[in-house]
Amino acid sequence: MLIASIGDIQDRITNSGVMTVGAVGYAAIGGVINDEALSDGIITTSEIGAYLEAKELVLNHDYAIASTAEQLFMQEHAASMNSLNTAVDNLTAATAVVMTAVEVSTIAAEADTKPEQVELQAMLETDAYSLDAAEVNEYNEAVAAVETFAQQAGAFMAAANNDDLTATVDNYAAQGNFMVGSYTAITYTQSIDEFVITWDDSGFGTGFQGYLTPEMKNATEIYAAGEYINQYGAMPTQ
């Protein structure tokens, strides 16, 4: 995210540099450049906003080497929450596109006269009030990203709070005589409730399975939690 946002700004700077040379060249010989001719060199509000958001994520991330399994899991939780926040923003934007398009349903339900039906046709011919496969794919991918990062963030938090799991990971590292935080990869697979952690530099790696089953939440529970938060502004107390 940081690299992409910097890249966008670099593109603006490149455009500005080249177009400034051209503008000066034309000015010297009496060429009159158009209003906003150098707009491609202007860094937009959204571009600086994306950069500042990405910079904040990097600054807030804990890059310290974890000395315990609890710290390891909490660091991964924080990283997944950052990704989840971005995924939610993307879903919000994708939802707005879809919602604008489906608003036409109200007019469609009431279009029982020729003028109203003509108005409906005109609306459906505009991009704002029609959906295409790319917009639907973008929305679906945004929903899937929220599911992925929410699941990962929840799993890492649950792991950090699970004394049996953290003790097992700490003991494994102690027996191998390496630091927990020197891990090179970690994954969690919900369908089999398994963390796989590897320490490639130390030549170790293993799976830790079956620790989070009591924390699993199904679609009904998730929907109920969403309704509760929408009404009361917070999760119900456990």
Question: What this model shows, in words?
Answer:
- There is one protein chain.
- With 238 residues, the protein is mainly α.
- The chain folds into two domains: 1-60; 61-232.
- The chain has eight helices and three strands, in the order αααααααβββα.
- The chain has helices at 2-28, 45-60, 69-102, 104-110, 114-124, 133-160, 163-176, 219-232, and strands at residues 185-189, 194-199, 204-209.
- It has a three-stranded antiparallel sheet with strand order 1-2-3, covered by helices on one side.
- The longest helix is centred in the middle third of the chain and has 34 residues, at 69-102.
- The radius of gyration is 26 Å and the shape is flat.
Overview in brief:
It contains 8 helices and 3 strands, in the order H-H-H-H-H-H-H-E-E-E-H. With 238 residues, the chain is mainly α. A 3-stranded antiparallel sheet has the order 1-2-3, covered by helices on one side.
Strand order of the largest sheet: 1-2-3
Biggest sheet architecture: 3 strands, antiparallel
Low-confidence parts, pLDDT < 50 over ≥5 residues? Answer: none
Terminal residue distance: 35 Å
Total strand count, please? 3
Oligomeric organization of the protein chains: single chain
How would you classify the helix and strand content by structural class? mainly alpha
Shape: flat
Please compute the radius of gyration using only Cα atoms: 26 Å
Proportion of beta-strand residues: 5-15%
**Quick check: average pLDDT?**
83
Topology:
Elements: H1 2-28, H2 45-60, H3 69-102, H4 104-110, H5 114-124, H6 133-160, H7 163-176, E1 185-189, E2 194-199, E3 204-209, H8 219-232
Antiparallel strand pairs: 1-2, 2-3
Helix pairs in contact: 1-2, 3-6, 4-5
